[in-house]
Design brief:
CATH class of chain A: Mainly Beta
Largest interface: A-B, 32 and 32 residues
Radius of gyration of chain A: 13 Å
Number of helices of chain A: 1
Strand content of chain A: over 45%
CATH superfamily of chain A: Jelly Rolls
Oligomer: homodimer
Protein name (chains A, B): Cupin domain-containing protein
Order of helices and strands of chain A: EHEEEEEEE
CATH topology of chain A: Jelly Rolls
Structural class of chain A: mainly beta
Number of domains of chain A: 1
InterPro entries (chains A, B): Cupin_2, PKS_Associated_Protein, RmlC-like_jellyroll, RmlC_Cupin_sf
Domain Cupin type-2 (chains A, B): 37-94
CATH architecture of chain A: Sandwich
Largest sheet of chain A: 7 strands, antiparallel
Distance between the termini of chain A: 16 Å
């Protein structure tokens, strides 16, 4: 049995942006913390839904046909296969929940692709 | 695509204790809110891990060999098959994350068994 996880403590362990860190796993689902600021890449995940839960700050998820604004205490489920682009004007702390193996840039790849399955 | 979910708003919609309400689903994983106070039943879930994430207040998860105290901003993964008993001295707001179909009292049943798959 792993130890309990304190989100603020885990966020204090890294500064990189757009680089999700795994903090827990339930069955094959991973819980990842990420700090974001600025614009990410348009991408989608063909095989899975993805959850964004904002822990502190504000962010925007752009879709091709709408924009969703999220603040601390709010969450959103991005359906599989749907193109999206996360954005945050100032730094925002987010928990991402998705199956293990999911790469942050999905089908798009590129410079913002982070190493996967990095635990802290 | 479902609307975004505001946790505080969803918590304001119900008062019952020990009665998880589904607020979101990612693939076959459900996100449930529950208000707890007092002692729950010893039970386990034979087929799945289960995540407790404390949103406000404090709670305790008793295991046969140890006790884990959780406060707001902390989470814990209960491994499948492991007996546990949640407890909260004063009301505590919790998010439970687990596959759809999981019953709150697991293998134990009894009076605290809540209706499953109730969305708010």
């Amino acid at each position: 049995m792993r130890a309990k996880v304190n989100l603020a403590e885990k966020f204090s362990l890294f500064d990189e942006l757009w680089s999700p860190k795994v903090i827990a796993q339930m069955n094959h689902v991973q819980f990842k913390l990420v700090k974001i600021q600025g614009e990410f890449t348009w991408h989608s995940h063909e095989d899975t839904d993805e959850v964004f839960m904002v822990i502190s700050g504000d962010m925007v998820i752009e879709f091709r046909d709408k924009t969703v604004e999220l603040s601390a205490g709010e969450m959103f489920v991005i359906p599989k296969g749907v193109e999206h682009k996360p954005y945050a004007e100032t730094q925002c702390q987010v928990m991402i929940i998705e199956p293990e193996g999911v790469v942050n840039t999905g089908d798009a790849g590129g410079a913002l692709t982070a190493e996967n399955d990095v635990w802290i």
